[in-house]
Amino acid sequence: MLKLHPEFVVKNGKKHFAVVSYEEFLALQELLTDAADLLELRMAKRAESGNRSIPLAEVKRRLRLQRISGPRKGKG
Question: Domain extents for the chain?
Answer without folding.
Answer: 7-69
